[in-house]
Amino acid sequence: SVGGFLEVGSMATAAQAGALFGFQLIWAVVLGTICIIFLVEMAGRFAAVSHHTITDGIRERFGFNAFIWPLLATLLVNFLVLSAEIGGVAIAAELATGISFQWWALPVAFLAWLLLWKGTFGLIEKGVSTLGLVTLCFVVAALMLRPEWKEVAVGAVPSLPHHDTAKYWFMAVSILGASISPFLFMFYSSGAIEDQWDKSY
Fold first, then answer.
1. pTM of the predicted structure, to 2 decimals
2. CA distance 88 to 38
3. Would the pLDDT of 121 be above 80?
C-alpha cells in the first residue's frame, strides 16, 4: 500500500532529521525503505509456506519459553508505537480543530480500539491504503519546493556528518527504527493467513 509503512513516527523523525541535517540523511530513509520491503515480503512468504503467523511459527518451532520473551518485547514496543500513533492523530486533530490534543487522546484511542476489535484485515488494509494516498502530498510538496537534485542525490549516499556526529548517528538510527516497526511483521503475516496465501501466491 502507498501509506502502509508511513506513520507519524517516521514522518516526525524524518522532519527532524531534515531540519538538523538537510538532505544528508536521505540514505537512512532509503535504507529503511529497502529493509522494510524485504522484511515484510519475507514475513508474507513465511506465512504462505508455513501457514503460520510469525509468532505462531516461533512458538511451534522453538517452544513457549523461547516464544514468550520476544512476544513480551514486541508487545511493549507495539504499545509504545500505538501510543505515538494516538498522540500523532490527537495532535493532528488539535491542528485541525483548535481543541487541545489532550481532549482528543481518549476518543482517538477508543476509535483505534473499535477498529481493531470490529474491523477485518481487509478493512484495515484498504483503509490504510486509501488514507495512504494522502502521503502523495509529500511528493507534490517536495517537487514544489524545487530542491537541488544534486544535493538530494548526494544525500542518498551514506556520508560522514559535517557537524554534530552523535546527533547525526542518533537521527540515522532513529529513522531506521521508525521505519522498521515490529507490528508490520505480525500484521502482514496475519494478513497472509487471513487471505489464505499459499505457495502459488
1. 0.76
2. 27
3. no
